[in-house]
Amino acid sequence: VQLVESGGGSVQTGESLRLSCAGSGYRHSTATMAWFRQAPGREREGIAAIWPGDTRKYYADSVKGRFTTSRDDTINTVYLHMNSLKPEDTAVYYCVTDEADWGQGTQVTVS
Predict the structure, then answer these.
(1) Where are the beta strands (DSSP E) in the chain?
(2) What number is the average pLDDT over the span 75-89?
(3) How many of the other CB atoms lie within 10 Å of CB of 111?
(4) Which of 56, 57, 55 is nearest to 47 (CA)?
(5) Is 51 exposed, middle or buried (0-12, 13-18, 19+ CB in 10 A)?
(6) pLDDT 10s digits, 41-56
(7) SS3 96
(8) Which of 40, 54, 84, 105 is the most exposed, fewest CB within 10 Å of its CB?
(9) Environment class of residue 30 by beta-carbon count within 10 Å: exposed (0-12), middle (13-18) or buried (19+)?
């Protein structure tokens, strides 16, 4: 299994970013995919998830109303659309399969 996140970067407060996670080596269309993040000195936090067929989504309270997740099963990719970014969103963001396969992460820095 390989998961490759991209789209991170450094932005100003209030700006937006879109993270992508391209997967291979597993059956993407039937996988529930999740996004986690980890900031320095803080516990890893699960922030979003999307079920197969886009039938259900979950958002943590910390990102609800600002972040959305979507998927394109034709290219085995999930997205995390992040709006109204805040400094407390600064973290390494990971995508994860429902078999606990993790990507390498992408850094998001908000100042």
Answers:
(1) 2-6, 9-11, 17-24, 33-38, 45-50, 57-59, 67-72, 77-82, 91-97, 106-110
(2) 98
(3) 9
(4) 57
(5) middle
(6) 999 999 999 999 999 9
(7) strand
(8) 40
(9) exposed
